[in-house]
What we know:
- Two copies of one chain form a homodimer.
- Chain A is mainly alpha-helical.
- Helices cover 69% and strands 4% of the residues of chain A.
- In chain A, strands 1-2 form a two-stranded antiparallel sheet.
- Mean pLDDT of chain A is 84; it is low at 1-16 and 203-215.
- At the A-B interface, helix 9, helix 10, helix 11, strand 2 and helix 12 of A face helix 9, helix 10, helix 11, strand 2 and helix 12 of B.
Amino acid sequence: MTDAQNPSQETAVAPVKPAMRDALIAAAFQLFLDRGYEQTTIDDIVSLAGVGRRSFFRYFPSKEDVVFPDHEKCLADMTDFLQASEDGDDPVARVCDAARLVLRMYAENPTFSVQRYRLTKKVPGLRTYELSVVWRYERTLAEYLRARFSARRDGTLRADVIAAAVVAAHNHALRAWLRADGQGDAAAEMDRALEYVTSAWTSKQAPSGAAEEQDDVVIVITKRSTPMWRVVRDVEAGLGQD
Amino acid sequence: MTDAQNPSQETAVAPVKPAMRDALIAAAFQLFLDRGYEQTTIDDIVSLAGVGRRSFFRYFPSKEDVVFPDHEKCLADMTDFLQASEDGDDPVARVCDAARLVLRMYAENPTFSVQRYRLTKKVPGLRTYELSVVWRYERTLAEYLRARFSARRDGTLRADVIAAAVVAAHNHALRAWLRADGQGDAAAEMDRALEYVTSAWTSKQAPSGAAEEQDDVVIVITKRSTPMWRVVRDVEAGLGQD
């Protein structure tokens, strides 16, 4: 049945019929891999999937969108996850956890993710599309951080830079996993990459001259000209020995 | 004269005739501002500039490229600048200086830069184009850092994250200046933004327990369980007092 034959019924059915969406994705990827992305038309896809052209556009605004079918949902999940954040949550840890949602989406279907990675590398238009998706993730993280850092004079700068660093670390680990054909422990690699970002900023919360407490590490930042007695006092304060 | 009338002569003349390129840019922006980007065709642009269609494509691959006429040269300048780096140069400071080349390009022509900023905000296609340009800058910085950090186990991660953070800080300061209609001290704002990035990483060069020297700041990272005599020794070493 195509939507052209019975559009009203299909409109009503579509939301509870993800199978058609999945069939379109499967048909699209079969054709992209067999004959190439540029050589595949939307008509080819709907023909193989056995549906009408309008069904395609009900699920996907363009041919590019069928390549990245899960990003809209993942962006919505990320927004929900950040909105559920509480004031006590560490904001940088929270955006790292939000970024992990993207990895999880890729890791749920390694074969598909690796196929898409190879396809995207070959088609400049898909690479551009992916950049705009990455940008939307980055803005989602940055908006959350801007709200959390709103009391700081440098809040928006801090938010933008940390969001970019988190996205870069995430993509570094994700691409390593994709290049390894989806083999290996993606989550562990991701932890390592995100830890690099969090460690860069958790040490910089303290203003110059102050000591900051952490789980088991104390960091003292001091001017070279500071007298030693004062450095020792700051270190003692940091170690909780004063 | 149009290239259709005398293509061979114009091909020979083009490299020493930047006036035609400038005329095309000026005509394009006049039309973009008057009637809108989408409503302006390449035919409109060449007609107003008084040149032939092929002249346009000699200078610009597409209508989008005429909006960002200087990025190719700026990318080439950035690559040259990074290649001229010496082993003694601090790699993070070098990529910050490389990013400043982009600001300088914008600041050389504030009116044009502000016009383009407003245009880009309104046209999604230009925003996407800009994202791909930003990505090329980021990759240029990251490739340089990867080479500089090649001896480190986490070199590529570090390179990617720092490049992204530098680009985010740069764009934060650049956008603030553009939003302020090109008023204010863009270079000072840029220094402040990039300083935020460099300060995040210059403190993390040292492994836990070690002291690191900087111009006038000493940072000591120590475990909470470290005896005070050892902390003092490390601080003294950092201050050059041992």
